[in-house]
Specification:
The chain contains 23 helices and 28 strands. It has 721 residues and is an alpha+beta fold. The strands form eight sheets. Strands 23, 24, 25, 26, 27 and 28 form a six-stranded antiparallel beta sheet that branches. It has a four-stranded mixed beta sheet with strand order 3-4-12-9, with no helix packed on it. Strands 14-13-15-16 form a four-stranded parallel beta sheet. Helix 5 packs across helix 6 and helix 16 packs across helix 21. The protein is globular and about 90 Å long.
Amino acid sequence: MDADAGSQNPENGERRDPDRTAEEDARARAEFAALHGPALRASGVPERYWGRLLHKLEHEVFDAGEMFGIMQVQEVEEESEGEEAREARKKQPNPGGELCYKVIVTSENGLQAADPDSIFLIDHAWTCRVEHARQQLRQVPGLLLRMANLMGIGFHGELPSAEAEDLVLEEMWRFNQTYQLAHGTAEEKVPVWYIMDEFGSRIQHSDTPSFATAPFFYMPQQVAYTLLWPLRDLDTGEEVTRDFAYGETDPLIRKCMLLPWVPADLLDLSSSTPEPPAEHYQAILEENKEKLPLAISPVAYPCDHVFKLGPPLAFICLCAAPPELLGSVLTSPRGQWGPGPGRAGSSEDWCGTGPGPGHPSWLHTPPQAPGLQLPSRPAVLSVVYTDIQQVLRHLTHPRFTFAQSEADADILYNFSHFKDYRRLSQERPNVLLNQFPCENLLTVKDCLASIARRAGGPEGPAWLPRTFNLRTELPQFVSCFQQRERRGQDNHWICKPWNLARSLDTHVTRSLHSIVRHRESSPKVVSKYIESPVLFLREDVGRVKFDVRYVVLLRSVKPLRLFVYDVFWLRFSNRPFALDDLDDYEKHFTVMNYDPEVVLKQVHYDEFIPEFEKQYPEFPWKSVQAEIFQAFTELFQVACAKPPPLGLCDYPSSRAVYAIDLMLKWDDRPDGTRVMQPQILEVNFNPDCERACRYHPGFFNDVFSTLYLDEPSQCHVTRLV
């Protein structure tokens, strides 16, 4: 396509689309700017390019070939080259005698940055999410061969092969770029990785780049491109380069970010990670937009206190209706409540169906619905407002009923995160909550690792895998990785987003390059992967990984009152464990209950204990559980040891339910004794309690009795502190 097609705009020198009038062209540009302007500004694309960019997008103009060329270079060692120069050259991209590609300006007139036409589209050769990469290499015709050629990978034998796949998957981190969608489900917002076409992938790195690039999603076509534009004027023959660590100014961080292309030795750097200073936690509080409460007196209700009655009887009756009737009334689609991005906390997707209070299907249900009997009014009621369907369906304790609005409630039991504790403490100090100020210190993974160092020093306690915040502790992690590599120690690691659950965007790897690049996609921690987990023998599969979930109930911070539910839950991998096939989800992960096509192994706790003790007779579960409970106790003690925002806030009206996921690993004590060491994986806010309610219908009655009535003695809970 002719890049010069179009009429000239005398005001700014831009060309107008010949198929549109001046008025139509102006309108199209205004609409384009309204739709894509925020993204273009965020990427730093100068507005002088927007008009021609629109033309190229609409007409799919790929005109980079008219301005640039790819040059193949092979560097050869010179006899006169000194040792210092030779070592320096080895640390550059494409070192040694390997082929090196460069992109240069070939236009006879060079290229001017002020020219509105000096923006170019780069196509993407491969787009995927990491968990689907191997499958796509196997299933998409020609993809593996194209990637091998693009990456300069030579093979012996026929393609495709398992060896070829492994090499491409290892080498891809030198070519990958990333973006993520701002809207959609949690699954849809998992970062996308892409490799530019042969032209874009040949552009080399420079600390003083001549060009900038940015991913761009063109909404009308639902297609992603990479945009390329100059940062200065270039003459014929000058090289096109970009900064692979764009935006980072810290020299040490840049050195780490460039490791996939420029080898560097950080062995002399300390890998110690002490707890961050108080300013770190204050910044998190401000980022989270949480307002701490004023000091209030604890809410004290006499045991015979008659609470404010709830809403009209029709509403109360609907909440107490049998499930088959509720199923016919609650017909709205699956709820979408949940935390927003940032550090709000790790919380699992709400998995109920039907609307919450205030929905028309609640408010307009006839009081005398068929099969529905009106209960007598109880004398003592606590009015609860909740948007959690599991609570609405399963809380049947006679001292609790449900409110239609927050204004009528004595208890706010919400799935979404509460922010303005200050206002609540001023206006409604007697309203009880199901969350604590600053609880993200427990439920966000980087914060969890930080506060845990209060119990175990810079490397953390024995009950938490060694963890680094990739945003703030990247050099320390690189040093640790390289030190372990030099000592011949296991170097399998797991990358996790700060605040996602269900193993989303979580990857097991032994590639330093992969971990360094994952830092670019979303805020992540990297934790030592448990290479020697305690396994469980499944007769149908073999020896598999498993994890254990306990529900803990935090009644208060000062004094610390912590309970654990007596029933725990188990999740199992579906394939025998081994330190290979690291992208095999069913071998290395245990979360199987969100994919209907994956086998979900169910073993109840009372069946698990005797089978576990049969497999490990030297480790009675009572002793193992005592170690687990000790880890829980230490975690909450350090979480509550300092005032907010360095610790959980002592707000007398707060209560909370958390789910703690853990594994067991084999460890050796100094005396040589082999032990099972609990490893806390994460703490979840407002966990999915579907299985708890299904097999233990009184679960929420126990939770509410313990937290809000202070009556744990008749409940299935054990007090830890």
